Amino acid sequence: MDSFTTVGSMLEPLAHIGRDPKTGGYLRDSWSDADLELREWFAGEAARRGLDLREDRNGNLWAWWGAPSPERPGVVTGSHLDSVRQGGAYDGPLGVVSAFAALDLLRGRAVTPSVPVGVVCFADEEGARFGVPCMGSRLLTGVLSPERALGLTDDDGGTLAEAMRRAGRRPERAGRDDETLADVGTFVELHVEQGRGLVTEGRPVGVAAAIWPHGRWRFDFRGRADHAGTTGLADRDDPMLPFARMVLAAREAAQRRGVVATVGKVRVSPGNANAIPGLVSAWLDARGADESEVRGLVADLAQAVGADEPGAGPGPGPGGVDVREESWTPVVDFDVALRDRLARVAGGDTPAPILPTGAGHDAGILAAAGVPSAMLFVRNPTGVSHSPDEHAERADCEAGVVALADVLEDLCR
Ligand code: GLV
Ligand code: MN
Ligand code: MN
Ligand code: MN
Description:
This protein is α/β, with parallel strands linked by helices. 34% of the residues lie in helices and 22% in strands. The protein folds into two domains: 3-212 and 331-411, Aminopeptidase, CATH 3.40.630; 214-329, 2-Layer Sandwich (Alpha-Beta Plaits).
C-alpha cells in the first residue's frame, strides 16, 4: 500500500470533525461530540484491520495486532485526537493516522512481529477542557489521582466525572491501571514538530531528545465589581491592574531567566464593558530547559502580585490574589539507547537529527513512568502549532510513516 495515499486519505475523513468553518481551526475538547466522533473513527479503523479494540478505564483507546500480556508486552505507537481550541489538523491526529498507516506498511512488507503491535489514542492530551494536559496517560500511570481528576471542572462548571458519564463511561473506574500499562513494552509517538528544528536541519524526520519541564498555574485576582462611570479612580479595587502587572512581569522574568511564559487564557467576571470586574482569572504556562528557572519565574510572579507561594489552598478573599498550580511535568530525558536506535533506523544513510522540545506529550508521561519511550517528529515548514496554520507537507508525512514503520519493524523483530 502506498503510504502517501494512506496518510492523505486517512486524514481526509477527519478534516470536518470539530472544524470551525469560520477559522478553519479545530475544537476537539475531550468527551465532546467531536471527540466521540473521532473515537468512533478510531474504532472503525481498528475494525477494518481486524485489530482487537480495547478502551481502558481512563478512556484511552488501544487497537492490538496480536494479544499483549505482561510476559509478552507489545510495541505501541500512536498519539491523541483531541485538540487545543482553534488547533491545527496535525497535532495528535498525525501520530494516530501514521500509526495505522505504518501498521499497514508492515503488513504490506509481510513482517511477522515477534511481539504484539498496538495503536493507541490517549484521552485528553491537551487539557483544553479540564485544565490538566495528558489526562489519560497521567491517570493510567497514577501520577494524577482520580479524586483530583474527576472533580476538575470545565468553563461551564461541569466535572470530568459528569462528562465521562454523559459519554457513557464509568468514571468510578478511572485511576492507575497497572494491567493496561503492563501490556506496553515500548512506546513510540510520532508528532508534527512544533518548531523549526527540522527546517534548519533540512530533514523531514527527527527524534526527540528531551521534553522541557513545564507547568500551568492559575492566578485569581479578586476586586470589587462596581460601575464604570460613577466610581472614582481612588475608590476602585480593580483586579485588572494586578493582572496586567503580572503579565508584564511574566515577560520580564522569562527574558531574565531564559525560559518562556505565556498567559493564553483569561476569564473576566462578570465581563461587562461598563463595570469594573470582580474577578480576573488568568492561566500562566511556563516552560524552560532549567526547572529551577521555571519554578523561580512562578515565585517571582507570586511575589510581584503579593501572593503566597503557589499552593492548592482555598480561593482569595476580597482584594486578594491566589496562585494555584494546576499541573507540573518534570524534565523528561528520553532513553538514550532507544533514542539513538530510532535516529539510526529512521535516518537512513545519516542518523536523524535529535531535537529537544518545549511541547508536552503522552510519551513524556510514559517515559517518566518507566516505559521505554521515544518520539519521531515530522517537519513543520513554519513551525507554527496550536493554531489553524499548523502544517506538514504530505511528502514529509509519508517520510514519517516510512520511518515509523522501519522503527516498529526494528523494535518488534
Ligand atoms: C501540549 O501540546 C502542550 O505542549 O501544551
Ligand atoms: Mn498540542
Ligand atoms: Mn500533541
Ligand atoms: Mn502536546
